[in-house]
Known about the structure:
Layout (H helix, E strand, L loop, with lengths): L2 E9 L8 E4 L15 H11 L29 E10 L2 E10 L4 E5 L2 E3 L1 H11 L13 H6 L3 H12 L2 H188 L5 H37 L1
Antiparallel strand pairs: 1-2, 1-3, 3-4, 4-5, 5-6
Helix pairs in contact: 5-6
Amino acid sequence: MNIYLKKLELHGFKSFPEKTIVQFHRGITAVIGPNGCGKSNLVDALLWVLGEQRIKNLRGENNEDLIFTGSASKKPLGMTEVGAYFANHDSETYIARRFFRSGEGKYILNEKFCRNKDVQDTLFDLGIGERNYFIFEQGSVEKMINLKPSERRILIEEAAGIAQYLERKKETAGKLIIAQQNLDSLELVLQEKSNRLRELKNQVHFARRYREIKNSRNDLLKALLQKKYQAFRGDFDLQGGKIVEFMNGESALVKEIGDFDHGLLELEGKRWNLDQSLKSNQQFIFDHNNKLLEGSKEVEKTQQRQEFIKQKMAELEQFIAESEAEIKEIEKQEKALAAELDGFDRELAGQSGSDRELAQALETIRKASAARNIEDGHLKKAMFNLQVEISRN
Length: 393
């Protein structure tokens, strides 16, 4: 056999947390170590990468048992991957299997993702079947000796290289059974479709009959509508002429209405101008009335003032007359007093050492005369001021 396992790569598989590469050569390769160092894990890794689905054969309960669970110095990993390199003459085949703790698993064949069936077909092509006759564990030789004839036959067929074809024959037979079942189902479907086709033919017959009746009905309806159309066409033409006349009359009315609206707009403009002029005149009249009212009030005030001045002048004239009379009387009295004074002066000159009473009487008369003169000056000044005020008004 020219095919042999060249290299095995383990990463996170059971007791191999770090990436571990085990090189194999032609002939015999021995792995030596104490119990518990992981020698059996190499065999489990090889079985697992070649497609083993029974986890109990790999000394585990579930797929998560294949992932490194951690130790005192290292944390548990989230995935495991095992890759195997098979050498065949000058070519090399790489098969790998990967599993994540989340439950997702993948197969890799020559750096491409594939199915488990693709891996098994490749193993058959390489001469390595899905059976594990080439792995001899403790007690395997005794087990091979005690195999049943049917189990020995399977072993011989795998060794002879015909197990691949038998497996393919088995798959082909299964596919033929499935194809026969599909054919039976297809016959049932065809029978059902034939019944359905018969129903559809009847429906087509009724549809055609319905279409013929419908076409006949449409033809009769078209003829009736054509007759009604011709009758209505004459009425339409007659009414159309009347409508044209009405439209012409309407156009004339619209024109008249337009002219009337135009004249109405002009009148409205004139009315607006008259309103503006009226408003201006009313404002002017209002202002003029205000001025007249103010002038009448001023005239009334002037008249009242003139009446007051006339009354005052009358009083002044009466007062002047009385004052003139008093002045004349005073002048007479002054002349009399002056004559008396002269008489007294003469008497005083003739009589020396006149008594004191005559001197006091003389002084009293002089003061009364001075007071009369002052009062007369005031009266003259008041008359002058009154005459000036009257001349101003």
